[in-house]
Write a structure and sequence with these properties.
single chain, alpha+beta, D-amino Acid Aminotransferase, Chain A, domain 2, seven-stranded antiparallel β-sheet, about 25% strand
Length: about 300
């Protein structure tokens, strides 16, 4: 049985100090737990180097601002803390999870006097999906819940509360034998998966939904950059579910998923092909320090 996360023999950076994971505790009356006033990032380290760590730290600060609180550390301080905990945990290929939240000074809808906390954890983490399955293509269900109207939720923040429907949707998909689920937006258009952005391929061109009610991921931006470097035309537009039968390939992107092929979304089928495979290879070369050295 895997060791529970709160019993891992690692260190966590907690409000400026390194503490054993088992000692990194908060009150059950913490505002972040009761009212989801928390923001976080998911990052990966390859060969001991966090990929686009500063961009993640900047987004963490922006997300906190959207939730009306300020993290009491600069981007440079957050970057340094992430490097420190990774180094002290002696982890090279790892997942990095910074999280900031409102404390327990007040417990109600209002929380203007609450202390803002920041913690950073790291752990060794291989590929999110089985490597062979990533090439063959994972299967996605179609989620019942939809991404909310930006006028009703802070969609541009990587906020804990926005993932509630993602957990429910992923659980329902896994119970039916799928790896994940694709979500539509509040108007019934293709949006994203529960924790990854999505792309489709038709006639040598890549199509992806406009990210205006969900996060335009950092991995998404990397995939777009890599496609353009290959001279592949990329179109950001509204995509309706009934169009999916017209696409030949599909893949998803995210810090956890990296670039992963998709073979099926509900009744729609896809065949992972040359473009998806090329972008998977290009992404690996982009994030791996040895890949960067070889390309230099």
């Amino acid at each position: 049985m895997a060791v529970p996360f709160d019993q891992r023999p690692d260190l966590i950076w907690f409000d400026g100090k390194l503490v054993p994971t088992s000692d990194a505790k908060i009150s059950v009356l913490t505002h972040g737990l009761h009212y989801a006033s928390a923001v976080f990032e998911g990052e990966r380290a390859y060969g001991g180097t966090i990929y686009k760590g500063t961009e993640h730290s900047e987004r963490l600060k922006r997300s906190a601002g959207i939730l009306d609180f300020e993290i009491p550390y600069s981007v440079a301080e957050i970057d340094a803390a992430k490097r420190l905990v990774l180094e002290r945990n002696n982890q090279k290929n790892a997942y990095v999870r910074p999280i900031a939240w409102r404390g327990s000074e007040q417990l109600g809808v209002t929380a203007m006097q609450n202390k803002i906390h920041l913690a950073i954890a790291t752990w060794e983490w291989p590929s999110y999906f089985d490597p062979a399955q990533r090439l063959k293509g994972i299967r996605l269900d179609l989620a019942e819940y939809r991404r909310p109207d930006p006028a009703t939720a802070p969609c541009m923040a990587k906020a804990a509360g926005l993932y509630m429907i993602c957990t429910v949707s992923k659980h329902r998909a896994e119970r039916k034998g799928y790896a994940d689920a694709m979500m539509l937006d509040w108007q019934g258009r293709v949006a994203e998966c529960t924790g990854a952005n999505i792309f489709f391929i038709k006639d040598g061109k890549i199509h992806t939904p406009i990210a205006d009610c969900f996060l335009a991921g950092i991995t998404r931006a990397t995939a777009i950059m890599l496609a353009k470097k290959r001279g592949i035309e990329l179109i950001e537009r509204r995509i309706m579910p009934e169009e999916l039968s017209n696409f030949s390939e599909c893949f998803i992107t995210g810090t956890a998923a990296e670039v992963t092929a998709v073979s099926e979304i509900a009744q729609w089928k896809f065949t992972p092909g040359a473009i998806t495979t090329q972008l998977m290879d290009d992404y690996t070369a982009e994030v791996q320090p040895k890949g960067k050295a070889a390309a230099a």
